[in-house]
Amino acid sequence: MEITFYKYQGTGNDFVMIDDRSEAFPERDLALVQRLCDRRFGIGADGLILIRNKQDYDFEMIYYNADGSQSMCGNGARCAVAFSKFLGIIDQRTSFWAIDGAHDARMAGDWVELGMRDVLSLSNTGVDFFVNTGSPHHVRYVENVADYPVFEEGRKIRYASEYAPGGTNVNFITPLLGGELFVRTYERGVENETLSCGTGVTACALVYGFQNQLNEVNIKTPGGNLRVRFTKAADGSFTDILLIGPAEQVFEGKISVQ
Ligand SMILES: N[C@H](CCC[C@H](N)C(=O)O)C(=O)O
């Protein structure tokens, strides 16, 4: 089977994107997903995204982590919107379907403004925080995230019994001067630090915004800068959440697989 794919990246979180409106891709073949995401034996990516038709929506995005597990992916969703524009499925605005439900988004030049699902509440876990922004996120403040052992410490929390059996993503944050946050993330399903995590920076922005009476947070990640806007309700919930950032097509390719 020959597969035409497009490689996209959103602040260094990278994805194999496939126009699968023909539904030819074997969506249960997780070994194939793992192979395509393998950085030595395949194309190489943090995840793989299928674009499919969906009644009542412009498209559906099906996201796989590199290990074949599925979740919502904020950076991947931004790339899916840019890819759908490239394919001519959408123009400037869209409503699409993902594993956590419907999302609205709009193109803003090379950036994408992605509507995230409402978040009902943050929770405390020890001195840390937990919030689900379409995928689960543990959030920990650290003294200097630039020098922090993200892989080692992130892995411990990801596999902690409190999160069994599904696990969680893990974000470490250090506030910078000027109200910006520096975030580094250990990602479940990639089982490593990624250069950024969209649902992760959204989780961090909600935690920081809640504590500092903000409704917009600029986030620095090793892969680039993102912005998160939201409305805090009196009941502790968050609505009108926007994840704003770039999405770039890096290259197009074909790959033959058995
Ligand atoms: N690894 C995450 C999904 C991808 C999240 C990340 N790539 C993003 O941009 O949101 C999980 O399994 O929950």
From TrEMBL:
Protein residues bound to substrate: 13, 65, 74-75, 169, 187-188, 198-199
Protein name stated in the entry: Diaminopimelate epimerase
Gene Ontology molecular-function annotations: diaminopimelate epimerase activity
Gene name, Swiss-Prot/TrEMBL: dapF
Keyword Amino-acid biosynthesis included in the entry's annotation: yes
Family, as annotated: Belongs to the diaminopimelate epimerase family.
SUPFAM superfamilies: Diaminopimelate epimerase-like
Alphabetically ordered keywords of this record: Amino-acid biosynthesis, Cytoplasm, Isomerase, Lysine biosynthesis
Transmembrane segments: none
Positions bearing the site annotation: Could be important to modulate the pK values of the two catalytic cysteine residues: 137, 187
Class of enzymatic activity (EC top level): isomerase
Active site, UniProt feature: 73, 197
